[in-house]
Amino acid sequence: MVELFILWFIQIRTYKRDSVMIFISKYMIPKGYTGLTLFPFIFLKHRKLLKDVILLNHERIHLKQQLEMLVLPFYMFYVSEFLIRLGYYQNWKKAYRNISFEREAYTNQSNLEYLKVRPFWAFLKYLRNHDI
Length: 132
Ligand SMILES: [Zn+2]
Prior knowledge:
Elements: H1 2-10, E1 13-17, E2 20-24, E3 35-38, E4 41-44, H2 53-68, H3 72-89, H4 92-97, H5 100-108, H6 114-117
Parallel strand pairs: 2-4
Antiparallel strand pairs: 1-2, 3-4
Helix pairs in contact: 2-5
The protein binds zinc ion.
């Protein structure tokens, strides 16, 4: 177990982009995903993803969502909404994509100016009628 942890730890590389700390570790990211955000950090699966400005923008939108919900409530809300949508869609990927936080992030990830104009708690408008 200790050896596993050390192995995991030395696999992590750290980068900084516009004052956001980004970790690269293929073991941190669940299968089928390329990045995840745990405030105040972004985790990416591979170093080459640092060049993916759309993915980074997506994760930055999550950073903003997490910050404005004071972090912990974000995760509770996120998981609850996922479970409700999983019951509704009966499909893991569809449930994930339709979480309001993900709808907001996927809808606006290509707009690199989005975070400059985004209203407070903007994810709320994605709770309804935005099936992806
Ligand atoms: Zn996301």
